[in-house]
Design goal:
- The complex is a heterodimer of chains A (about 170) and B (about 350).
- Chain A is mostly helical.
- Chain A contains seven helices and two strands; from the N terminus they run ββααααααα.
- In chain A, a hairpin with a 2-residue loop joins strand 1 and strand 2.
- In chain A, helix 6 runs antiparallel to helix 7.
- The longest helix of chain A has 25 residues.
- Chain A is elongated.
- Chain B is about 45% helix and about 15% strand.
- Chain B is built from 13 helices and ten strands.
- An eight-stranded antiparallel sheet of chain B has the order 2-3-4-5-1-8-10-9.
- Classes of the chains: A mainly alpha (about 170), B alpha+beta (about 350).
- At the A-B interface, strand 1, helix 2, helix 5 and helix 6 of A face helix 6, strand 6, strand 7, helix 8 and strand 9 of B.
Amino acid sequence: MAENLKCSICNKDATVHLTQIVNNKIHKVDLCETCAQNKGITNTDGFSLADMLANAPLHPVESDDKRVCSVCGFQTADFRQTGRLGCAHCYSIFGDLLRPVLQDMHAGTKHLGKVPTFALVRQSNANRIHDLRRSLARAIAEEAYEQAAKFRDEIQALEVEEAGTASKT
Amino acid sequence: MIEPIINCSRAELTKGAKKAAAVVLSTRIRLARNMVGVPFPDRANSSQRRDVLANCSKQLSALPQMKNGFFLEIKSLSELEKQVLVERHLISRELCEGEIGSGVLINRDQTCSVMINEEDHLRIQFLKSGFNLKSIWKQIDSFDSTLEESLDYAYSEEFGYLTACPTNLGTGLRASVMMHLPGLVIADQMDRVIRAVSQLGITVRGLFGEGSDATGHVFQISNQQTLGETEDEILERLGNVLKTTIDHEVNARYKYLEENRPHFLDKIGRAYGVLRNAHVLSSNEAMNLLSLIRLAIDFGMLPKENRPVIDRMFIECQPGHVQYAAKIGIRPEERDLNRADKLREQFQQLPPLNFDTVGGLD
């Protein structure tokens, strides 16, 4: 006799077997009755497997992937468990785990929509100032004072610009 | 706390809309946005949540769109007040769970609400009665752009606007349209519609209750996917599905009228009679009867000016609203009495049904 399918969430014998087509891809999931109830699957209308896939990965695996986000302390295990992320920085830490999930979830994996112009300008200014400060320090260390003065003026100009956008708010 | 919101004479969904449309009750678009450098609300500590609330509410209240608006902190609201705001779609159930630092700003005419520290730092929502995807997108887009001048949104070139749950990634845009689909429900076609649109990345769910025979025949249709397409593409695809759904609904209504005219008129007549005379009405029964009256208006059996009245009743007959209007704590059975009283009073003011004019849908 074929081995009974196990619930993808709690590993008990599965009695609910679901198939759904999202983006022309077939998703299958096996669940026990309790988990199916908890996920609201007994009422299949309007239920989306994609929602569930996002919240519970199909095969939670023990792994030695022990990455931790330096900003919020979120770990690989947290991501696998919740399907969510802890902060914006997590996206650069766990991006590789996320990409395959996104493929099934969305129409594409690359953002094509609106761009927050002001925030990006501010961010690139901040990065630029950071780089210039380092160059300035190096120039001073090398006693290249003419160059250092140039860097200093550039930093000041950017900071004035920054203050300008800030006072607008 | 929320008295001025309920009594506001300009509230879009209950008072403002002059001419509500057939089939489509209301349209809403929401954008999910987060601040750079602060963990998402679920991972943020109390002081970070408080900072986000203080900073965002300050920037938001400075916007011209929020002039004379309302700012409410969740922790200062009673359970009942929260329920009323949920029933009016001004806040979500998830926001109600939030303790420290969760709040909402609502503009004067209640077409815009911004939840702070819900699943994401900001959930900006614009809503209007009728079918309005394009004009709402224009409004919310410009609101969002203005806000972005003073707030640093978390964004990456690859993933777009970064959100707590990857299901909202990219545009962070979810558009939902409330549709009144009694024709498709009666013709037993709702399951087919739900299956068909889900293959296009679009979800359908009952607004009051779940499943394909939602109470009041009101369904919420929304895009599920937020990444890999522009906002315009998402809205266009959803718009096309909605237009097709409207066509199917109108056809189903005509077909039903043609094949079951006496039974159909009987149903409407009885619904009108019950709403005008009943003394005990559960919220389910009231919604289903109101749905038939809305259909009667679409068929020209009552003047169109009454459509906003029905839409208001849909909202004000929900449990939280009935309880709130009672001023004192009442049991669910008593709510059914109050609800019937309210509907009786309202329906005494309506003209009689005109069965001779049944014809073109509008």
